[in-house]
């Protein structure tokens, strides 16, 4: 058994957190991951607090295990969601796309385990000083909104810079990825892309098929010119945005094309003009499984590779 500081911190069987995928990670996926022994997350994305609260109430019906909420800090509703998770006594909060510093004291007062996603050593250090319990160190291989550095270079540098547990994310979808993350000093992993094809994931089937069919080179990054780079699977929308970016088009025009595009792909199944966010590891993902099968397969592979040593 792989038992680390992350198992203890989150009271979970396997040190794995499900990625907070906006418009996708709902009560169904979060509870399936938590019931399988990981930490499931409900992604708040850009939804209002009351919509997120409904998912939390559903998840409480579906699991008695701990689960968390991922707060996307660029959302206009981030502030109200930050307060709502305290009312709902959520076990853990992860954050993305910003600095959650101003909320950390409040969350800690409500016994919430706080785990910000960080793209750099500087932000990891600031989060530790602000009272975070752990950090998720997300490399640019990840899907969705990304930073510049790869998982390979970011994890060991953050491990050296902080004393709190480091959870590796970006490019991890099997036992080899887990074992590699542990070798870099991580004590847990966050996995998003592989859970997109989980049976319990309610994302549109066209989206799942895009992930299942993707090859190694099928993802690209759009939005660098707007300051909000996102990794997506290549399609018509991504190529159109790329063409506009090459022409140095107006940022507002590019942002207008991206608005609503994640919802279009995830909910409507528009995988031509929608935004199919997924990580570079999509090329390796080729089968549908339950969340339980995914987690158990990943950890049985990792345990073999790590040679049965006790990981703490
Ligand atoms: O947040 C993510 N991934 C996401 S959020 C998302 S929803 C969205 N939709 C359209 C456009 C933009 C977002 C889809 N995927 N991952 C975690 C993550 N956080 N990656 C990078 C960061 C990050 C970046 C800068 C965290 C902190 C940060 O701090 C800047 C600062 O203020 O210091």
Structure description:
With 312 residues, this protein is an alpha/beta fold. It has two domains: 197 residues, Alpha-Beta Barrel (TIM Barrel), CATH 3.20.20.70; 63 residues, no CATH class. The strands form two sheets. The chain has an eight-stranded parallel β-sheet with strand order 1-9-8-6-5-4-3-2. The protein has a three-stranded antiparallel β-sheet with strand order 7-11-10. Helix 3 runs parallel beside helix 4. The mean pLDDT is 97. The structure holds ligand TUI. The site of ligand TUI has 21 residues, from strand 5 and strand 7.
Largest sheet: 8 strands, parallel
Could you spell the SSE succession in H and E letters? Answer: HEHEHEHEHEHEEHEHEHHEEHHHH
Radius of gyration: 18 Å
Bound molecules: ligand TUI
**For the record, what is the CATH homologous superfamily label of the largest domain?**
Aldolase class I
- Strand-pairing-aware structural class: alpha/beta
The CATH topology of the largest domain is: TIM Barrel
User: Major sheet: order of its strands?
Assistant: 1-9-8-6-5-4-3-2
* Strand count: 11
Strand content: 5-15%
Q: Just give the CATH class of the largest domain.
A: Alpha Beta
Shape field: globular
Do you know the CATH architecture of the largest domain? Alpha-Beta Barrel
Unreliable runs: none
Number of helices: 14
Task: State the helicity in percent bands.
Answer: 40-55%
